[in-house]
Amino acid sequence: MLKRPEQNEYDPYFSRYIELMPEDDILAFLDRQRNRINVFFGHLSEEQGSYRHERGKWGFKEVLGHISDSERVMSYWMLSLARGDTMKLLGYDQDTYVNNGCFGEHTIPELLVDFEAVRQATRTLMTTIAETDWLRAGHVADKAVTARSLLYVMVGHTEHHLHVIQQQFGR
Q: Which residue numbers delimit the DinB-like domain (predicted)?
């Protein structure tokens, strides 16, 4: 079972995501989080999925697409570090990804299928990483991190968006 990363495993920038992780059993948390996403987004109508609480803000479909894209990108970063790749990894522009994601053209069930596939791929990837490889370090967007810390950042990032939804919309 993976333990929370130590503070020396990640740049302080990422602490806002890692601090959202309440426990050490990351696999159980991944599954509970997946279920919460399916329940919340699965109960939205297509009209609700396109709702934007403010002009220029993302709708629910864009948020779900962003969560999936971010998990894809961060899984790649995690894979790269765990496999011993020493090249510096670039960050990504989340707004460019969302603006070009065409998420509004997809139904919520389609976006949930995509999220499920990404989450399952993350879980499968985790099984191929040896215990010692989780501690391999590198740089992402010029920030020092370990593979383990990236997993916690990735899941904490999703948790961040679920908290924002809950705070803004009481769901």
A: 30-165
Maximum C-alpha span of the chain: 47
Nearest to 45 by CA among 102, 101, 109, 98: 109
> Could you tell me the fold of the domain covering 24-169?
Four Helix Bundle (Hemerythrin (Met), subunit A) (1.20.120)
Residue 25: left (phi > 0), alpha (psi -120 to 50), or beta? beta
Residue 24 has pLDDT above 80, yes or no: no
Tokens representing 146 are: 């370990």
| The pTM of the whole model exceeds 0.90 | yes
**DSSP letter string over 65-122?**
HHHHHHHHHHHHHHHHHHTT--SPBP---HHHHHHTS-GGGS-HHHHHHHHHHHHHHH
pLDDT tier for residue 171 given thresholds of 50, 70 and 90? low
